[in-house]
Amino acid sequence: MTEVEIITIGDELLIGQVVDTNSAFMAEKLNQAGFDIRWKTTVGDIKKDITDALKLAFSRASIILVTGGLGPTNDDITKHTLCDFFNTKLVFDAETLKTVEEVVGQSGRQLNELTRSQAFVPQNCTVIQNRVGTAPVTWFEHDGKILVSMPGVPYEMKWAMENEIIPRLKERFSDTGAILHRSFWVKNYSESMLAQKLTQFEESLSDFVKLAYLPTSGVIRLRLTGKHSDALFIQSVINAESEKLKSILGEDIFSDTDDSLEVSLHKTLISKRLTLSVAESCTGGKLASLFTAQAGSSQYFQGGVVSYSNEAKINMLGVKSETLENYGAVSQEVVEQMAAGVCEKFQTDCAIAVSGVAGPSGGTPEKPVGTVWIAISFNKKIVSQQFLFTKNRETNILRSCNNGIRMLMEAIGK
Amino acid sequence: MTEVEIITIGDELLIGQVVDTNSAFMAEKLNQAGFDIRWKTTVGDIKKDITDALKLAFSRASIILVTGGLGPTNDDITKHTLCDFFNTKLVFDAETLKTVEEVVGQSGRQLNELTRSQAFVPQNCTVIQNRVGTAPVTWFEHDGKILVSMPGVPYEMKWAMENEIIPRLKERFSDTGAILHRSFWVKNYSESMLAQKLTQFEESLSDFVKLAYLPTSGVIRLRLTGKHSDALFIQSVINAESEKLKSILGEDIFSDTDDSLEVSLHKTLISKRLTLSVAESCTGGKLASLFTAQAGSSQYFQGGVVSYSNEAKINMLGVKSETLENYGAVSQEVVEQMAAGVCEKFQTDCAIAVSGVAGPSGGTPEKPVGTVWIAISFNKKIVSQQFLFTKNRETNILRSCNNGIRMLMEAIGK
User: Fold this and answer.
1) In this predicted model, which residue has the larger pLDDT, A255 or B109?
2) What is d(CA B163, CA B167) in angstroms, rounded to the nearest whole number?
């Protein structure tokens, strides 16, 4: 298995100003392509720290992917540090200048001296033109190992990974063997209850098959992973273990896709030509945003109402004011009216409605922080359920979203 | 300066299934407390890799904070690995069992054998009780250095950092000197244009003051950082440099808070007792979710409409169908009607409305992917602006949110 290290560079990552979403994206793509990511290292824009990280990575990994520190400003030093590390110098590259001019021109801007400096590249590398930004991607080969340096701007990095780096790595390492994952989404279990249930199953697994428990907010994803040089063999092993798992857990496995819950529902709604709307109180737009983050969601997603205030529930969703008075906003009666109301207003086949106490304040003895009512509507039938999540606002929002999606997935079926 | 390394452990971080938000949170809190985070390392649930990471961290950092791998299931091996690393063994701890029983009891569950095993802790450490989860936090002192192991579940980690670890570290390292940050939010510049403008200013900075360019989606945050043993001295230096920056950039600095844009507007709306609603097309709920993620947002946020379809724009926001026919959904006329409509429907003082082509499809020659119209309403006055962002959906959504927030911040003033 070809082992990879990801090095992310930037002071902003070390003071917590920016969450490193890049390395997760890179890891996912690499993993799907059969590469094994073993280390991730983050250092600041400090020459010594970058150099030390490079040395360590070369001592242990076959492929080193570096992001960040390629901006035109003085605080970005990755390019110069790589030159020193590989004992080379910067040279002017006409093709890179042409690409930079094109990219800058597309946004209607003029090229200035600083941006022009992006056309200076290390002498002993392969330059990969960046079609969506001004910092070129550079590819070094050294001691039979590969280092690729790419921009830290997420969509430039994504473009480079998908269009250039992954295809080139696949060609270069065509004999990487296979990594297979299979996911199972489980309801009705806590992590430890599930682990007890699966003790025997786990003990029976071969060395090259691993079972992981991934409690995402509100449900558990089980992941079987097999790594082996023989792709066909590992596929048959994973298939057999998957069948065993399914027979042990039965109906409590509500989905067996590797997709996230929202992507899974997104695909189902498109394939079944169903439309969706959402009525959100405590999730505050998060549920809608999970769907609309997906390209193509306009095929089914008609819209939603974030009804934070009681007035909004009445005026925008047709919830009855007596119901709000008698039962309170966080109640079965209100959340069911929200689901029916949003379906009606947006004329959709399905709806998800959520009303709860996200916290940290707003709880009462009867309805403590973490109390959430969720209703789904499908085929004019409404199903609702009460939950008691945590004291944490962010967690409560995410668990509400995930459980609403799960409830609708179960109602629609496969 | 006391240097810190963060080690995050978990296979899910190396296959990209989970984005590591923990280390950003930890880094932010540590940084605010005056600690210098120099390295972040991520390894999988592999004993050799964890041990190597621990050895390296002990060779360079004074404080090592470890998250993850503390679940009760077999794939979690951090506790056993720490025992071997520190040459100690697990012992039963009655107080930990009591805490675990309390925590499990609160969620109405029964304690099972697996969860009970959380009461076994390394012998030579200080146990810090976890009041919000079942895995205790363990604190080791070794060669004058400190290692703290905490759960990877985000809200348990956050609880432990805020309530136990940061206070204890501050007490232990009371002479850590000072790190000061000052942020400036700049509009109307690209990163390279801004760097040219600030060349002289940058060259004049002392060694212990650093200027960083942090282009967040759609605007640039400049960050001045000063590190020095003398807290008063560094404060006066940073104050003086801040004044210089302000006089160079003038009106193009639209905010000078260290908060994110949404937190800054959140605070302004609360302090000025203004209410807000949002009308979202291409941002699809993301804008609402940025506000509602903040505790206390119900003080000003009344709600919003995600009007993905044209029908929703007409029925839920009162946009005129002739306007949609004549100008199209992505137009000044429509977005201004959306802003006026949502203000009216939710009876709010302010509103932000967004309509655009997020992509990757849906673009036309006149309105390519990335075209976004944003309108804000304040004091019954509507201001709108057109943008041409990128080809990337995620980036377009974020830039739209940030620019909508910026426009309203500017309209409201300080």
Assistant:
1) A255
2) 7
pLDDT tens digits along A141-154: 998 899 999 999 88
Contact predicate A127/A121, CB 8 Å? yes
Distance CA A12, CA A73 (A): 14
What is the phi/psi pair of residue B23, to 5°?
-70, -30
> Residue B116: helix, strand or coil by DSSP?
helix
- Chain B 271-300, residues with CB within 8 Å of chain A CB atoms: 278, 280, 282-289, 291-293, 295-298
Task: Report the 10 Å Cβ neighbour count for A189.
Answer: 19
B302·A315 Cβ contact <8 A = no
Indicate yes or no: CB of B213 within 8 angstroms of CB of A71. yes
Q: Considering only CB atoms, which chain B residues are within 8 Å of A202? A: 74
Q: What is the pTM of this model?
A: 0.79
Strand B63-67 relative to strand B3-9, pairing: parallel
- Measured distance CA(A367)–CA(B63) in Å, rounded: 41
> What does DSSP assign to residue B118?
G
Q: What are phi and psi of B121, to 5 degrees?
A: -130, 155
Show the 3-state SS of B362-397. Answer: CCCCCCCCCEEEEEEEECCEEEEEEEECCCCHHHHH
| Segment holding A132, helix H or strand E | none
Q: For residues A122 and A84, give the distance between their C-alpha atoms in angstroms, rounded to a whole number.
A: 10
User: How does residue A281 score in pLDDT terms, banded at 50, 70 and 90?
Assistant: very high
Strands (E), B155-233: 178-186, 209-216, 219-228
How far apart are alpha carbons A15 and A27 in whole angstroms? Answer: 22
Instruction: Tokens 């900075």: give the residue.
Output: B205
In angstroms, what CA-CA distances link B207 with A218, B211, B235?
A: 49, 11, 15
Residue B72: pLDDT band (50, 70, 90) is confident
Q: Which of B13, B17, B103, B371 to mutate to test the interface with A (most CBs of A within 10 A)?
A: B17
Nearest to A337 by CA among A321, A317, A352, A355: A317
β-pair partners for A225: A181, A210
Contact at CB, B303 and A308, closer than 8 angstroms: yes
Q: What angle do CA A358, B288, A154 make, to 5 degrees?
A: 105
**Residue A110 pLDDT more than 80?**
no
Cβ contacts of A315 on chain B, cutoff 8 Å:
345-346
DSSP B6-45: EEEE-HHHHTTSS---HHHHHHHHHHHTT-EEEEEEEE-S
Q: Are strands A301-307 and B301-307 parallel, antiparallel or unpaired?
A: antiparallel
Q: What DSSP element (H or E) covers B174?
A: none
- Cβ atoms within 10 Å of B232's Cβ, excluding its own: 9
Minimal CA separation from A392 to chain B, in Å: 7
Q: Given CB atoms, is B227 within the 8 Å cutoff of chain A?
A: no
CA A364 to chain centre: 35
Three-state secondary structure call for residue A347: coil
